[in-house]
Write a structure and sequence with these properties.
With 497 residues, this protein is mainly β. The protein folds into three domains: 3-338, no CATH class; 341-417, no CATH class; 418-496, no CATH class. Helices cover 0% and strands 47% of the residues. It has no helices and 41 strands. The strands form eleven sheets. Strands 5, 7, 14, 20, 21, 23 and 26 form a seven-stranded antiparallel beta sheet that branches. Strands 27, 30, 32, 34, 37, 39 and 41 form a seven-stranded mixed beta sheet that branches. The chain has a five-stranded antiparallel beta sheet with strand order 10-11-8-16-17, with no helix packed on it. The chain is elongated and about 125 Å long. The termini are far apart.
Length: 497
Amino acid sequence: MYLIKTTSDKSKNFCAESLLFAVKSVAAAVSVALLVLFMFVGANAQTANIYGQLGNFDVINHTGHHSHGFEIELEGIHPEDVFYSYSYQRYGAAHITATATGTLVRWESPYSGGAFTATTIPHAPNTPFAGSCYMGGASYDSSGCEHFGVSLQATPTRTQYRWLIEDAANPGTLIGVNPPLAIVSPVYTIIPPVREGDAPELEAEIEAPEPAEAPELYGNAQWVKVFKTQLNREVSLDELITINEVVPQGAAQVETEWELIQDEPASNSNGNRRQRRNQGALNFDTRSVLRRYEVYAYTGTYDPVTHEALCADLVCNAPGEGELGEFQSAQMAAVNLSVNSVSIAKTGSGTVESADRLLNCGTKCTASYNLNTAVTLTATPAKDFLFTGWGGACTGNILSCIVTPTDAANVIANFVQTFSVSAKTSGGKGAVTSPAGINCGKTCSVKVARGTNVAFTATPEPGFRFVNWTGSCSGTATTCTIPINNIASVQANFAKN
């Protein structure tokens, strides 16, 4: 499961407004178990909004026992905080019960005729893992692999995962296997930009999943490899599976090649192993950030007294020979979000500037803003261009607009090229008029937007008659209409009666 942290000075309240868990079949009945917690952040002074967090975890049975279920221990929450428990796997729906410290979510096999009827066999060492955990797949029953999930309306203070096996002392009863499983759960923090207007960053923090056996000892260590990508669209739950190409897994998507994670004693440690952070700038158009956390066993040397991992390279930057063990779990996590920003697009030539000078488009067309900041934009057309109106988050056709981003606000400023349109008379007395503003005699030239149809009317004075048009108009009718796509000049020819 996933937690949200924000760095707002005005609000650090978490409002869980909506939770959704969706499951679809993939590739001819290959279905996916997905763990999702949607939490909405209602925080002022935030430069980005997290709309929801999605994820699933695939985990192997490396207990050495036939497992007949799985449990997630959630401390600090109540059973009513568990909104949904995933049921599309061999154990069916979960049982949710209160404990002295929180809530226990359990998937359990039925027991009939003196035996459990559903089993996840032990995973065979050094056999393939990826893609084998999905019900309907050819290797599902023999893989020793499964996936589980819940959706929550509150934040647990601690989460632990365990396989369930039969209690030899009490047949027909299931007990959890310790130590807890090596499954990481990222916590996200929005980091405001250092320089005003730049994009914020997103930090993902994981903690060592296996606690130490005693307060003065280190816990078991794991190697973690992290892949990352960010998309300019939101992702859905059913996309976050190992066999889906949207999940980052390629060499070019490696964010952290290797890092060692290990619970540390309160004394004689610096905390650098217990917590690991990945942080990176968001793009202004980012709508989702996806990470895949691959967890492997550490099989190197431990200090015989403290149980601290003693890597061959002395700093544990990468596994040495004999230090990389079996694949333990794969956590696929995504955050759907948006950067509180104003982005300007233009048609035609002109500039748009914000009153705070963070935007001058022109050259800088996107800037981040704190939530609900009122941003005043002013459009200035280039020479021989006309501002014709706003689109997107701004409306109307006056030169200034105020936009208040509560999300990524996209604004369009529309400019259109103008051309000189002129009229004159010849041969006699009369006038040329047009709704475009021409009244020649007095006003004989105006600027007109490209693509406009301009109508002209020739009106002779008494004692004269209209003969014909020349120039951009032709014919003998007293009216003429032409489209303006370049400079245009018309002449109305009059003669005495």
